[in-house]
Design a protein that fits this description.
- The complex is a heterodimer of chains A (266) and B (254).
- By secondary structure, chain A is of the alpha/beta class.
- Chain A has eleven helices and ten strands.
- Chain A has a six-stranded mixed beta sheet with strand order 6-7-8-3-9-10, with helices on both faces. A four-stranded antiparallel beta sheet of chain A has the order 2-1-4-5, with helices on one face.
- Chain A starts with a strand and ends with a helix.
- Chain B has 254 residues and is α/β, with parallel strands linked by helices.
- Chain B is built from nine helices and ten strands.
- A six-stranded mixed beta sheet of chain B has the order 6-7-8-3-9-10, sandwiched between helices.
- In chain B, α3 packs parallel to α5 and α4 crosses α5.
- Chain B starts with a strand and ends in a 6-residue tail after the last helix.
- Classes of the chains: A alpha/beta (266), B alpha/beta (254).
- At the A-B interface, α8, α9, α10 and α11 of A face α6, α7, α8 and α9 of B.
């Protein structure tokens, strides 16, 4: 069953410049889709449009249907009930995604209280449970910490816990590991993969890195200059890219990987 | 052969801190043998780079340049040092002065080292821009008119305009997209080849390290846990931490 259906999505600036151009794709319940492209390709704007979160001045036309709700042109009130319940997002930079003045535990408690109506001891237990699920060490300490007191990888786990707290049907992860070290990235990707699998959640995973996308999704859409240039399984895209742009992406990734293979054969 | 740059038993403790940021570091940068400093955030990579640049003084041990201890008071030595050792930073959006035209940005080392006047710098700036693959008319434009990859080229042109022997680069390609990253890696390889430039590169991207550096030192918690030829370190890692770093690199599906 289609969970998210995007048809002819076009995003324009106030001056009328087209940043996302006639984009169509769909994600079934529990399915995972990668959005691949460089900075400025429109991949992040696409995810913001799906959540009705476009920056002021930008307008979306076309159709974005999320779990049966039309997002394009929806009122803020309608959007509020969709966000969190149907789709939640993890952004690239966890430091700016978390409130610097609020303890981590309270930030996770907020969506739990709102969505599940939990209070008091039940809420405290649920927060502890979420921290354990994203495998944060010393959940007691982390819960009382402010965002600046924990590491980047831990902050990103907190952001993931907040997104999962609402138990959304679709998780949007926008470059969630780009700001992290490689070994932290590897742990984070494994964690994301297993948590999403347990919940049967649909995922849109945004990245400029083919190898990272390949760790999480089976199918991917390649974007350039606001348009979809190619879509297919990650396997096919890597093995036999058709569009010129995808070819250059794969060639670039292969070049770097070959240098590593030469020094450090698998 | 005397190393161009050397750290001998170096430690650095930040003011007010109870522990050393880096400890027991001995590293040598020899001409023609580019060195990678590999490790995760907080491992001390950037601290080492600051020591090698003479921007920080060690609390123990010595930093040596051409065999002599680097003394920040010795103006004659510092002039030679600044001419020989230049640097490129990670984020090309914050490393270029937005109010100055690219020509003035790239000419800066020539002017501040007293090598050239504004007019005599022009042909050298044009040549430096040409080496990094930018047109000469880039001189009259401002940094914001360029993309991230082009800005990093401008930063490399600025660092190489006075023909340094060593280029210290702090994560020079991590802020760039994959296709742009490959092009900047190619450019650095070309500069190594054609200008005889030796790189000292801080990076957490092992594929970039493997592409550019003959030698690799792996840092963990302020210590060098392993160093040697890149092929040896990455091909037959002796330390479990190095092994873990290598295993963490995401790979394309076979």
């Amino acid at each position: 069953m289609t969970f998210l259906d995007v048809r002819g999505l076009t995003v324009r600036t106030a001056e009328g410049r087209v940043l996302v151009d006639d984009l169509s794709f769909s994600v079934a319940g529990g399915e995972r889709l990668g959005l691949i492209g460089e900075s400025g390709s429109g991949k992040s704007l696409t995810t913001l449009a799906v959540l009705g979160l476009l920056p002021s001045g930008m307008t979306a036309t076309g159709s974005v249907e999320l779990a049966g709700t039309q997002i394009v042109g929806a009122t803020e009130r309608a959007l509020t009930s969709v966000r969190g319940r149907d789709a939640a997002v993890v952004f690239q930079e966890p430091l700016t995604a978390l409130d610097p003045l609020m303890r981590v535990g309270r930030q996770i408690a907020e969506p739990l209280a709102r969505r599940r109506g939990l209070r008091g001891a039940a809420l405290r237990d649920a927060v502890g449970d979420m921290l354990a699920q994203v495998r944060l060490p010393e959940p007691e300490r982390v819960s009382r910490a402010f965002p600046h007191e924990i590491s980047g990888g831990q902050r990103q786990r907190v952001a993931l816990a907040m997104a999962l707290a609402c138990d959304p049907g679709l998780l949007i992860a926008d470059e969630p590991t780009t700001a992290l070290d490689v070994s932290v990235q590897a742990e984070m990707l494994d964690l994301l993969d297993s948590l999403v699998r347990e919940r049967g959640m649909a995922v849109i995973f945004v990245s400029h890195d083919l190898a990272v996308v390949a760790r999480v999704t089976d199918r991917a859409l390649v974007m350039k200059d606001g348009r979809a240039v190619e879509t297919g399984t990650v396997h096919d895209l890597v093995r036999s890219p058709r569009a010129e742009y995808t070819k250059s992406l794969v060639a670039g990734a292969r070049r770097l990987e070959a240098a590593l293979d030469l020094r450090s054969p698998r | 052969m005397t190393p161009v740059l050397e750290l001998r038993d170096v430690a650095l403790r930040h003011r007010g801190s109870a522990v050393d940021a880096v400890q027991d570091i001995s590293l040598a940068v020899e001409a023609g043998h580019s060195l990678a400093l590999v490790g995760e955030s907080g491992a001390g990579k950037t601290t080492l780079l600051r020591l090698l640049l003479g921007l920080a003084r060690p609390t123990a041990g010595t930093v040596r340049f051409d065999g002599a201890e680097l003394s920040l008071r010795d103006r004659e030595q510092m002039r030679r040092f600044r001419r020989s050792v230049q640097c490129v930073f990670q984020d090309p959006y914050s490393s270029l002065d937005p109010r100055r035209r690219v020509g003035a940005v790239v000419a800066e080392p020539l002017r501040s080292l007293g090598i050239d006047t504004r007019s005599s710098a022009v042909p050298k700036v044009a040549a430096a821009l040409d080496r990094v693959g930018l047109p000469a008319d880039a001189m009259d434009r401002y940094p914001h008119e360029f993309s991230g990859g082009q800005r990093q080229r401008i930063a490399i042109a600025r660092a190489t305009v006075c023909h340094p022997r060593v280029l210290l680069a702090d994560e020079p390609v991590s802020a760039l997209d994959v296709t742009t990253r490959v092009k900047v890696v190619d450019l650095l390889a070309e500069l190594k080849q054609e200008q005889g430039l030796t790189l000292v590169m801080v990076s957490h991207d092992l594929s970039v390290v493997a592409s550019l550096c003959e030698r690799t030192a792996v840092l963990e918690h302020g210590h060098v846990v392993e160093q040697g030829d890149t092929a040896q370190v990455l091909g037959h890692p002796a330390h479990p931490y190095t092994r873990r770093l290598i295993d963490s690199v995401p790979r394309l599906p076979a």
